[in-house]
Amino acid sequence: MDAILVKGGGPLSGEIPIAGAKNACLTLMPATLLSEEPLTLTNAPRLSDIRTMTQLLQSLGAEITTLQEGRVISMSSHGTINTRAEYDIVRKMRASNLVLGPLLAREGYAEVSLPGGCAIGARPMDIHTDGLAKMGAEIELREGYLYAKAAGGRLKGAVIDFPFASVGATENIMMAATLAKGTTVINNAAREPEIVDLASCLRRMGAQIEGDGTSRITIQGVDRLGAATHPVVADRIELGTYMLAPAICGGEVELLGGRLDLVGAFCEKLDAAGIDVTQTDKGLRVKRRNDRVQAVNVTTEPFPGFPTDLQAQMMALMCTAEGTSVLEERIFENRFMHAPELMRMGAKIEVSGGTATVKGVKRLRGAPVMATDLRASVSLILAGLAAEGDTLVSRVYHLDRGYERVEEKLRACGAQIERVAGE
Ligand code: UD1
Fold first, then answer.
1. Which of 28, 103, 339, 371 could be disulfide-bonded to 395 (CB atoms 3.0-4.6 Å)?
2. Which one, of 239, 246, 245, lies nearest residue 282 by Cα?
3. The pTM of the whole model exceeds 0.90
């Protein structure tokens, strides 16, 4: 199993290209099931999660080819579609549940394995299934699978009030509603940029959707969707992660393709911590104002709030900030597994329930650490860049799910980082 060796050191300087968003691509790909005509995605990220989604869609009967080394994904679901998403693939990645809405909309029937828990929390699917039930689906749980059947063979429009602005449920219901009979309204919908991206792709395919990006989305069902080509939006989490590299190590880095509107709440916190972010023609340029950053408090919230997917990386920055910061995790119940690993590097962190208190220290020290989930693993790499000595991050398969060529991108800015064979 691979590991990543990071030698802590000096400031970084250079450019890092930002890829298409993993989370957008994972919801755009199942949209192929909604149409008999081809759907082509450009600016796709090259990640193991994308390969898992490819396998899942192929197992359902989609034909998928990739071009330009995976940057372009060409999909066609013109043939017979298999309606069963097997546990063997679904368990690898929770986003597999995004085939439920499209399968049900197209075939009137779906059998989708429940994904099971993951390291960061239980993550149930009740908001998805309650919404689909309102649209006329009868859903039963048997032997770990959701068996969903649209009454009368076709879903019908409904007004759905979400108890929480779930990203995945908004995406599933939005896709299901494009082919339903009548109008669907989602109240308290999630507003993430990935949802706006999905809506814009579905519109290119012929769907009638309004209000994406607000908490009320209206979808007028149509009889069929057509072909489309759609560029995947930039990955705001990859962007935010690399913005933290010069923040934590010093220097100046330009994030190519970065956009301020994707990382508003995050940039406000960076500004308060003493980091300058400037929009340029090419992207975002990041530089810290002083040698040491200031402690800031962070609470994770649905978009446009501070993203939970940047909480671990922000904690890495706060470990060496001047003062004490309080990080409150409000989206997932168990998302501080990086804290004990950072403490192995000399960080002073106390976790109590959903709150972590971080007392900044002058310097972290390199140590062998273990990646526990995707964002936690990259937070350890960031910490390693700023630490004195070597940090060996093992179990990096988590990292490969969501970051493409992390070591190459950081090395191009002068970081000493390499992939090594681990145990
Ligand atoms: C998506 C992102 C993930 C990000 C998260 C929150 C993808 C592939 N993943 O995950 O990276 O961290 O948004 O921004 O896009 N919940 C329920 N019942 C449900 C659905 C969700 O209780 O039916 C709870 C979850 O357990 C969790 C919270 O709601 O505590 C947020 O989940 P949700 O917004 O649905 O996140 P995902 O779509 O799974």
1. 371
2. 239
3. yes
Instruction: Kindly write down the DSSP assignment for every residue of 361-398, as one continuous string.
Output: -S--B--EEE--SHHHHHHHHHHHHHSBSEEEEE-THH
* Grouped pLDDT means (10 residues each) for the chain, 423 residues: 90 97 98 98 96 97 96 96 95 94 97 78 86 97 95 97 97 98 98 98 98 98 98 98 97 97 97 98 96 97 97 98 98 92 97 97 96 91 96 91 93 96 73
pLDDT at 122: 65
Output the CA–CA distances (angstroms, integers) from residue 421 to 5, 224, 385, 393, 416, in the order listed: 10, 50, 19, 11, 16
Report which protein residue has its CA nearest ligand 1's atom 26. Answer: 123
Give pLDDT, residue 206: 98
Q: Which residues of 58-78 are buried (b: 16+ CB within 10 A; e: fewer)?
A: eebebebebeeeebbbbbbbe
Bridge-based pairing state of the strands 283-288 and 251-256: antiparallel
| Residue 173 and residue 160 in contact, taking contact as beta carbons nearer than 8 Å | yes
Which of 120, 128, 167, 188, when mutated, tests ligand 1's pocket best, judged by the most ligand atoms within 8 Å of its CB? Answer: 167
Indicate the top mutation candidate among 331, 332, 401 to test ligand 1's pocket, ranked by most ligand atoms within 8 A of CB. Answer: 331
